[in-house]
Amino acid sequence: MAIIWPFSGSVQNYAQGGSDIVVPRPDCPTCSLPMVFWSSYKRYVRHLAEDHHLTIKRARCIGCSTTHALIPSFILLNRLDTVDTVGKVLENVLAGTTGVRPAAIEVAVPHTTARGWIRPFCDRILEIGACFSALLVELGGEVISYVDNYKKYALSSIEKAFQSATKLPGWQSIGMWNFVSTITGGKIIATNTNSPFLRVGKRYFIYPVP
Ligand SMILES: [Zn+2]
Fold it and tell me: Which pLDDT tens digit goes with each residue over 183-208?
């Protein structure tokens, strides 16, 4: 399994830090017991057309012995490109600023790659909009009235939920798309996610699908 943790530095900072990067030690997501650091592995990510080699630490639960990869929030599960790269394309396409092709060119990825990000997002667009609007209210924001454009509704829910979250300590510095990656467990464009859930700190929010 993977645990996404909020990382406020840049991808370059993380890559340069190598195995010296200070990773917060989590409790086990299954049994809540403390975990110990347990080896690491190498991988790379593509961030706005540049490749970066990373060291990903692992942690092992002292209770159930499960190991978890501790993934910095700029990474999405099973994706090569960083969440900021994907987020730039999503923002442009959802806001209707550009089509997928020009958005892909802007972040230097093939058109088909960008389409592979938009499609799973749009398949769950109402769920995503509803999740983030509910989170927005949970965080003390004003409920957003439904607009008859699913894309703008989803984007605006994410933006406003992030704005509300920035009133809590720590979120401002990690940026909107790292926030999204952290609270969705790196699954904002996952293709086989069941019911959507958001995790903020140790709290889980689960919402009915509209
Ligand atoms: Zn455990």
Answer: 898 999 988 765 556 666 666 555 54
Tell me which residue of 52, 68, 59, 70 sits closest to 10, measured CA to CA.
Answer: 52
Q: What is the domain range of residue 183?
A: 83-206
Domain count of the fold of the chain: 2
Report how far ligand 1's centroid is from the alpha carbon of 21 (Å).
24
CA 192 to ligand 1 center in whole angstroms: 24
CB 92 within 8 A of CB 103: yes
112-136 as b/e: b if 16+ CB within 10 A: ebbeebbebbbebbebbbbbbbbbb
3-state secondary structure of 195: coil
Rounded to the nearest whole angstrom, what is the distance from the C-alpha of residue 202 to the centroid of ligand 1? 15
If asked whether residues 133 and 161 sit together in one domain, one would say yes
